[in-house]
Request: fold
Amino acid sequence: ARNEGRSLIYRVRRGQAPQPVIDQQGMVGSFAVGPDVLVYSFQSPGQPTELYRADLDGSNSQRLTYETEEWVRDHDLGQVEDFWFTSYDSTRVQGFIATPAGHDGTEKLPVIHRIHGGPHGMYGYSFSDFNELLLAEGYAVVFINPRGSTGYGQAFADGTLKAWGGGDYQDLMTGIDTALARYSFLDQERMGVTGGSYGGFMTNWVVTQTNRYDAAVTVASVSNLISFYGTSLY
Reply:
């Protein structure tokens, strides 16, 4: 289950609250449960996916594969941290910022604002080759989980129901304002916005609402909600 930018494995017993078994700053992908062992894939911002094993209670975790070890050693990967802010209607929203390796906070960086798809996607503590390519070109990347995202409860995920381009747009703009105020090295005079699928829809929407971005790249976007109505479960 996703939880505030992480994807974890939980144990659920009838009548009790779910308890995390694998509880780390990253994202579990697939997993398999044996009689006395748990095997799972796991990634974090500085580590692409590898396989791990653990006891059924999550203890004695051990890495099994090292497929990306040499690649990671040969590359300077960026730094990721999260930030929280209060949106226009007092909703608490989580965002993330990625900065190039070695950036000390003094040099001004152009900004790419990434918007996830779904709308029920979730950014978080995962490895992102897309982000790393942008960081290598000298950009900072800001990525936010606006209402509609998973990992923050059902009411939050329902926040885009019949309301695409409403509160979700306000969350994204408040998040960018927060990032610009909190991280003085972000250059608000050099900003771009991008996203795919629903993130592409939101990119299309953003450029009709604000002139703050110098460039926009919409990817696999939804651009016509009338035709979309007959072809989607959304």
